[in-house]
């Protein structure tokens, strides 16, 4: 009966909150350097082996995407959310006009921005390091955006059962392992078909696959040469994009069921 | 719903219950509270720690849902009509929550940017006497200064209803007076205030209505005078061994901390009798103190479970009947 309940998410309020969360992130030098420097750590790998090696390229670029999801987004959003909750900032904000969704998005946006920035910077660096120009740069961009949203969702789900900012060092592990299993294990040749199938459904494997298809134009896990055209990459990107989308929906649903806004009494 | 009621009461609570936990460990903090806050009044919710005040306020603030009962804030449901209610209310939580790395001015800019119709930041800085600390990070503020920043946020949206959970706790006496002047000013401007406090003298002086909570229920409601009515006055002085028998009106006598304390139903007569006796016998009544029934004595009696007027007595029913 009330039109007030229908009121929509306010983009301007969300951006306002994001702006101040960015100020806070910049004032926390340690968190800021984690967010901006860590994701770029895999890039020097490009200088280690044969110049232009696609194996190295996939590891390095996939690594940037994974670390951009894990550090500026997942770990940063998790610790910001938990420490704001401990400081009763979230409870205070919720007494005002700010809606829960705006509060959550406002915390995630600075980290998402850092992640997308490092992914963008990685493109010219990788090309300068001898890697091929991406076959479908849009797919890489889409993958980066979806990855950041997915890891923000993982952060809120993890925050629901994280007691304090210190505890986040431990409670962040399940997601870190879940995300890392694909890039680290998925490429091993000795895996059985079933195991490979299962691993391909993890978030990290989907991200690696997106890099193989979107950037390198590789068709299948054994491919070592670029065979796909720009148009063909879209078709093969469907499964990894869907996997990431499903993880995002699952994480958001789990987060919504168990969300806590103030410290445990 | 009846729109007349909405105009009359800013908050209406009926049969409110709030239970924490489930099963054997469940604890019912609020056990059937009815509460009306008249528009334009200052209503003080009093009670010892653990009486259920904050648990009740959190439901009125829309931060928690009741286990049973109903709540209307400005005629609406604070949870389902959240956006509409929040635009017209200002809340101060029992404990302040700010990011320590922002300055006072930045904190107010952050808060103001979330409101539909914020008052200017500089106006709030002056109103809460924060001019000298405007560029200080919240981390470095004293408890009282942080509380004033918090109050600035509460009032920044120009609320019709202000809900304050212990606004003056941790403030020095001067700041306390300023905050209460501010709260009185809100009433002058037509706002409604629902406040909890541990300072009974403040509540007694400034509140139009008092609601005393004990063990999850409201056990007494009314104006400060109505609540104190029927309670004995007290006369006390440095301990004397010898006192006249049967001072008129005195119902009870005890010795405490080196003082003699008399309770009386008729302060003037008892005092006249006592003074006449002392004058006639050359007795000096050191540190003589005589006082009408205070809220404090009623409050302590309720908190100790020795409430002289039980809620079941006819006198209370009459009192409450005339108020509700």
From TrEMBL, chain A:
Domain ABC-2 type transporter transmembrane, first and last residues per copy: 60-251
Membrane topology, as annotated: Multi-pass membrane protein
Ligase keyword on record: no
Location in the cell: Membrane
GO molecular function, one term: ABC-type transporter activity
Taxonomic superkingdom: Bacteria
InterPro entries reported in the protein's UniProt record: ABC-2_transporter, ABC2_TM
Transmembrane portions of the chain: 30-48, 60-82, 103-127, 133-158, 170-191, 236-255
Keyword entries, A-Z: Membrane, Transmembrane, Transmembrane helix
One Pfam match: ABC2_membrane_3
One GO location term (cellular component): membrane
Protein name as it appears in the record: ABC transporter permease
TrEMBL record, chain B:
Keyword Cytoplasm in record: no
Topology versus the membrane: Peripheral membrane protein
Keywords: Antibiotic resistance, ATP-binding, Nucleotide-binding, Transport
Subcellular location(s) of the protein: Cell membrane
The keyword Oxidoreductase is assigned to this record: no
GO cellular component: plasma membrane
GO BP, sorted A to Z: response to antibiotic
Superkingdom of the organism of origin: Bacteria
Gene Ontology molecular functions: ATP binding; ATP hydrolysis activity
ABC transporter domain span: 11-240
Main location: membrane
UniProt xrefs under PANTHER family: ABC TRANSPORTER ATP-BINDING PROTEIN
Protein name according to UniProt: ABC transporter ATP-binding protein
């Amino acid at each position: 009966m009330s039109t007030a309940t229908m009121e929509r998410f306010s983009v301007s309020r969300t951006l306002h909150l994001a702006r101040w969360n960015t100020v806070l992130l910049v004032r926390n030098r340690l968190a800021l350097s984690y967010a901006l420097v860590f994701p770029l750590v895999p890039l020097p790998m490009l200088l280690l082996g044969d110049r232009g090696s696609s194996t190295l390229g996939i590891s390095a670029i996939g690594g940037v995407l994974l670390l951009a999801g894990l550090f500026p987004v997942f770990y940063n959003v998790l610790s910001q959310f938990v420490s704001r909750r401990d400081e009763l900032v979230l409870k205070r904000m919720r007494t005002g006009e700010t809606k829960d969704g705006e509060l959550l998005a406002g915390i995630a946006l600075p980290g998402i921005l850092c992640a997308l920035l490092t992914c963008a910077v990685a493109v010219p660096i990788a090309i300068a390091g001898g890697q091929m120009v991406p076959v479908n740069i849009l797919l890489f961009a889409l993958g980066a955006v979806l990855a950041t949203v997915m890891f923000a969702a993982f952060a809120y789900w993890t925050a629901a059962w994280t007691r304090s900012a210190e505890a986040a060092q431990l409670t962040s592990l399940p997601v870190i392992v879940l995300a890392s299993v694909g890039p680290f294990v998925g490429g091993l040749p000795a895996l059985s078909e079933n195991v490979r199938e299962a691993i391909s459904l993890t978030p990290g494997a989907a991200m690696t696959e997106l890099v193989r298809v979107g950037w390198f134009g590789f068709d299948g896990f054994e491919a070592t040469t670029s065979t796909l055209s720009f148009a063909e990459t879209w078709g093969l990107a469907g499964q990894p994009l869907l996997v990431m989308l499903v993880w995002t929906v699952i994480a958001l649903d789990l987060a919504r069921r168990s969300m806590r806004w103030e410290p445990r009494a | 719903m009846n729109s007349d009621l909405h105009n009359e009461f800013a908050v209406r609570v009926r049969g409110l219950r709030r239970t924490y936990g489930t099963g054997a460990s469940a604890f019912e903090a609020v056990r059937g509270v009815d509460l009306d806050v008249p528009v334009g009044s200052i209503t003080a919710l009093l009670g010892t720690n653990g009486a259920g005040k904050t648990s009740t306020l959190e439901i009125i603030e829309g931060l928690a849902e009741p286990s049973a009962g109903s709540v209307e804030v400005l005629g609406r449901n604070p949870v389902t009509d959240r956006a509409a209610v929040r635009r017209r209310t200002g809340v101060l939580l029992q404990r302040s929550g700010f990011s320590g790395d922002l300055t006072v001015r930045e904190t107010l800019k952050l808060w103001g940017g979330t409101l539909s119709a914020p008052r200017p930041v500089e106006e709030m800085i002056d109103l809460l006497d924060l001019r000298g600390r405007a560029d200080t990070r919240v981390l470095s503020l004293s408890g009282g200064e942080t509380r004033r920043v918090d109050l600035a946020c509460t009032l920044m949206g120009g609320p019709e209803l202000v809900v304050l959970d212990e606004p003056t706790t941790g403030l020095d006496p001067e700041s306390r007076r300023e905050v209460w002047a501010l709260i009185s000013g809100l009433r002058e401007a037509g706002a409604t205030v629902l406040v909890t406090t541990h300072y009974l003298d403040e509540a007694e002086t400034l509140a139009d209505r008092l609601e005393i909570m004990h063990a999850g229920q409201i056990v007494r409601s009314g104006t400060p005078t109505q609540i104190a009515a029927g309670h004995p006055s007290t006369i006390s002085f440095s301990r004397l061994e010898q006192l006249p028998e049967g001072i008129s009106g005195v119902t009870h006598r005890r010795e405490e901390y080196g003082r003699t304390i008399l309770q009386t139903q008729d302060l003037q007569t008892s005092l006249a009798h006592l003074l006449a006796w002392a004058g006639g016998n050359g007795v000096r009544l050191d540190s003589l103190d005589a006082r009408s029934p205070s809220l404090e004595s009623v409050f302590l009696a309720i908190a100790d479970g020795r409430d002289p007027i039980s809620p079941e007595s006819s006198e209370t029913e009459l009192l409450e009947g005339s108020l509700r």
